[in-house]
Amino acid sequence: MGVLTMGVFPSLVGSGTLDFSFKLAEAAMAKGHTVNLWLSGNAVMMAKKGQRAFKDYSHLEKKMMELIGKGMETTVCEACAEARGYHKEDTPPGMKRASMDWYLAKTFKSDRVLHIGGE
Amino acid sequence: MGVLTMGVFPSLVGSGTLDFSFKLAEAAMAKGHTVNLWLSGNAVMMAKKGQRAFKDYSHLEKKMMELIGKGMETTVCEACAEARGYHKEDTPPGMKRASMDWYLAKTFKSDRVLHIGGE
Amino acid sequence: MGALKLCFVVQRPPYKSENARLALTHSISSQTAEIHLDDGDTIVPTLIFVGDGVLNAVKNQQAMKHYGVTSTENHIKNGLLIDMPVWICKEDMQRLGLTEAQVITDAEEMGAELKMKFASFDEIQKEMEACPHLLFF
Amino acid sequence: MGALKLCFVVQRPPYKSENARLALTHSISSQTAEIHLDDGDTIVPTLIFVGDGVLNAVKNQQAMKHYGVTSTENHIKNGLLIDMPVWICKEDMQRLGLTEAQVITDAEEMGAELKMKFASFDEIQKEMEACPHLLFF
Amino acid sequence: MKLAVFLSDLRRTEDTYERLKAEKLGVILVENGIYHAVMKEGGKDSPVLNKAGASFYVLSEDLETRGFTSAQVNPKVKVVNYGDIVDLIMNDYEKTAWL
Amino acid sequence: MKLAVFLSDLRRTEDTYERLKAEKLGVILVENGIYHAVMKEGGKDSPVLNKAGASFYVLSEDLETRGFTSAQVNPKVKVVNYGDIVDLIMNDYEKTAWL
User: Fold this and answer.
1) What is the predicted ipTM?
2) Domains of chain B, residue spans
3) Model confidence over C56-99: pLDDT tens digits?
């Protein structure tokens, strides 16, 4: 069993990339792998509690909490969050806040890194 | 003197489109035109108070408040804001919240509409 | 008293972003715009799919099953249901290899009377000329 | 004790999104990654500009003057200042018509000793092969 | 129609621009659209500048932000500022299209 | 290197894909990348499928979300699910590149 670290950057409400990364994380954990997740850039939208669920938008808070509960280490880029007005008290329970070096350090002991960049 | 209604949709922290629309609004108002601004999709990020100013990100709250003070009617898409966890109490003073029909109705009495869509 | 025509033009495929979804929700909201308008004034939208935007009209989208979100298919059918004209560029369908059988032609199962219009780009160009304001998504 | 090489590859122009900026801030943060690592372990980044990404390295960017934000030029120079290798694809510069005079070659005015490396795509390919993990922006 | 088209990207993902017709067409290059005014990829003008009968404009602030100056702008393209764009929208054209 | 490349767009804005080389190359089509597996624009396969020596995969969930089925997938491309992609990443390839 291996360690997979994912960095998710461009995702947003209405894009499929966060959905993709959560589903992939779930599938990897189901196979016994360890998953670390770094949310940076616009993907820090996951760091805001209280997002209202509409059928028009994928609503991922529940899925994320479930994966964190199963051991997915999930950390959000602190500066990226602050720039968007997401403060410590907005962060869902179990999610960590850290600076970017956390992500780089995690890659050190990872078997695989899936860095989802782009725009 | 005319009425210009702008709808801004895809803009985000780190993109230049909101900067563009605020600068264009400022230039239009300086020439005596009336400007209405509709913020929808990801551009509702302007509806979150308390965004921390970093030199790496354009920080537009001050400019927006200045333009609202000068009479720019600025309305944010309520559903788009709620989906992102931006509630009424997050909205900067002077900014309105409304449903999408507000924007369409504004185009009725506008001389020009600049709809900034895209991704 | 008057009617203002607005063209909503979708140029990009679904699901990458909210783009197509916002075109659909905004155009459909023309139905309630009159609450902000003078008596008798109305907004009359045409929703047009061009370029890769025609991919929004592919049938049998399973977005709800896999990702728990409404499909653009569903939104388009809602548009037909409120009698909003929905046009799709037939040259673009052809270029992308989409047949009429693959795309939404109506929303009869929901009770809609209006059908999708398969239009040439020339017809679309004329519709854009007839709209005082253009909203490209 | 070991060093992990990471390739940060920027493929897109600046300012449309945070994309290039995030590549720069993340690669520069390798400097402090050791606080999370065992003694002696380090992260060794190479920052590479390919394709339209080479436009990030154009000199004299006036982003602070016009929009009040730091330029990617500034970030690249900060990278050189901390001795991070910064590579730019010379074939792509040529294709886009950029001369060496138009792009950042060094950050001497800030006291940096390291210079920009003008690399062929073949050299870049070899560097990507030498990195266990690739981070494309 | 008298149409002002805004282009804000270097790599475009639509082809509406190539097909749109207007009696009077203005093309305003902003944000990353400015690269079409200054770059000669493979030694050639950007295909964007081939649109027959169009007038081309580029926003000086966005040029300079990206490290280019008016001196590098293709002679087909006129350099304008935000105030000029307001006048183009409000006076010279009737409709806009941000593609 | 053994490289798994992810493509998630129909209209790509990079050309890294065309230039990257790998001893063993897997191309995984996800999100709007799935259109490369099912569309024949102008009657032709997507140029993405011309990459010599590569193995191609497409994510079934993303196909179906967009209204396509396995039956419409180009025979060059293998249909996979999320679990299969995990195995590709963890077992079959050493590095990933999301372009």
Assistant:
1) 0.96
2) 1-9+33-46+58-113
3) 999 999 999 999 999 999 999 999 999 999 999 999 999 999 99
Across the interface, which of A48, A83, A87 has its CB nearest the CB of B84?
A48
| DSSP letter, residue B10 | S
Find out whether E3 and E72 touch, Cβ atoms under 8 Å.
Answer: no
- Which contiguous run of DSSP H or E holds residue B8? strand B3-8
> What tokens appear for F35 in the block?
């259109």
Tell me how close the Cα of B38 comes to any Cα of chain D, in angstroms: 21
Which residues on chain C are in Cβ contact (under 8 Å) with E95? 131-134
Q: Helices A61-69 and A17-30 sit at what angle, rounded to 10 degrees? A: 30
What residue ranges of chain D have pLDDT lower than 70?
none
| Rounded (10°) CA dihedral A58, A62, A63, A64 | 100
> Nearest to residue C63, comparing CAs of F78, F32, E29?
F32
Half-sphere exposure of C66 (CA within 13 A, CB side): 23
Query: Where in D19-68 does DSSP place strands (E)?
Result: 42-49
Interface E–F counts its CB contacts (< 8 A) at 6
Integer Cα distance of D86 and B3 in angstroms: 49
- Residue in D58, D46, D127 with CA at minimum distance from that of residue D92: D58
pLDDT at A29 over 90: yes
CATH placement of domain B1-9+33-46+58-113: 3.40.1260.10
Interface mutation target, options A101, A102, A103, A113, chain D, most CBs of D under 10 Å: A101
Cα gap C133→B118, rounded to integer Å: 17
Residues of the domain holding C20: 3-136
Query: Quick one: pLDDT band at residue A119, thresholds 50, 70, 90?
Result: confident
CATH class of this structure's domain E2-98: alpha beta
Query: Which residues of chain F are within 8 Å of residue E10 when distances are taken between CB atoms?
Result: 13
Residue from F58, F90, F93 to probe the interface with A (highest A Cβ count within 10 Å): F90
Measured CA to CA, the distance from residue A112 to residue B12 in angstroms comes to: 30
Whether the pLDDT of residue B55 is over 90: the answer is no
Q: Do B19 and D18 touch (CB under 8 A)?
A: no
The ranges of chain F with pLDDT < 50 are: none
* CA-closest candidate to residue F31, choices F61, F11, F55: F61
Residue B14 has pLDDT above 80, yes or no: no
Q: Contact partners of F by the rule of 3+ C-beta pairs under 8 A?
A: A, C, D, E
CB atoms within 10 A of CB E43: 8
> Domain boundaries in chain E?
2-98
C29 touches chain A (CB under 8 A): no
Q: Which of A14, A51, A83 sits opposite B51 (nearest CB)?
A: A83
Provide the CATH number for the domain around residue D10: 3.40.1260.10
Find out whether F56 and F27 touch, Cβ atoms under 8 Å: yes
- Considering only CA atoms, which of F20, F11, E32 is closest in space to residue D55? E32
Sheet holding B3-8, edge to edge: B96-98, B73-77, B34-39, B3-8, B112-116
DSSP string, A33-56: -EEEEEE-GGGGGGG-S-PPP-TT
**How many domains is chain C partitioned into structurally?**
1
What residue type is assigned to position F41 of the chain?
A: E
